[in-house]
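Predict the holo structure. Ligand: magnesium ion.
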Amino acid sequence: MINLKTDEEVELIRQSSLLVSKTLAEVAKNLTLGTNGLKLDRIAEEFIRDNGAVPAFKGYKGFPNTLCISKNDAVVHGIPDAKDYIPGDIVSVDTGVVMNGYYGDSAYTFCMGEVNDNIKKLIGVTKKSLMLGLSKAIVGNRVGDVSQAIQHYCEKENSYSCVRELVGHGIGKNLHEAPEVPNYGNRGTGPKLLKNMVIAIEPMVNFGKRSIYTATDNWTILTKDRLPSAHFEHTIAVSESYPIILTTFEWIEEEIKTNRDIVYID
Ligand code: MG
Ligand code: MG
């Protein structure tokens, strides 16, 4: 069942979502060559708790950390480790919080130092596909309109592959609610988008083929062909006229632009 939120609930999800965005900006500020995922995870957890919230991922089905950090051929659900970042790494960071009983969820992929132009393009295309997808999230459309927009841009226009096994989702009092929001599909199919549905849209886009597998840590999802993958995510609310983006990349991108170790990609 898809549960529609009241305006008050959308506002509470916005507060949680904005804290997620601030947390990712804090990550962006501290993400440098020579740092590592475990250090960033500690910073993020402390930041979330200092702001009166609880990390949503830590302990979720046994996940050990606050951040999912998925590097290079890792798609999503990577466990932060102590390996220092080196030039050429692409680092996707996904996090969520719960505050006042409501969740927020967002992800961003960062480029460390000099990254190959082909990989920069993958990251730009993935971010743009999120915006194209969420632009379809208005009353009168269906989930498939969002899915099709993402898939068409990534696969047809740019020859990348959208991961099928993992999808976006409704969000609210739970981290994952109905409906599922796949990154592939057909226009005019799937559940109708209704006013005050809140969903997390999150394209996971592979440079090569779409096949994935789970690492021996039982969490990290990796590309089978070992080629890189990118991931961006916003939490949004559906309205009649335009999608209301509850998370924001603005603060993250301000940090990237003043961080000499991260390359900004439009
Ligand atoms: Mg997420
Ligand atoms: Mg999500």
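Residues 7-263 form a domain with the Creatine Amidinohydrolase fold (CATH 3.90.230.10). The first helix runs from residue 7 to 30.
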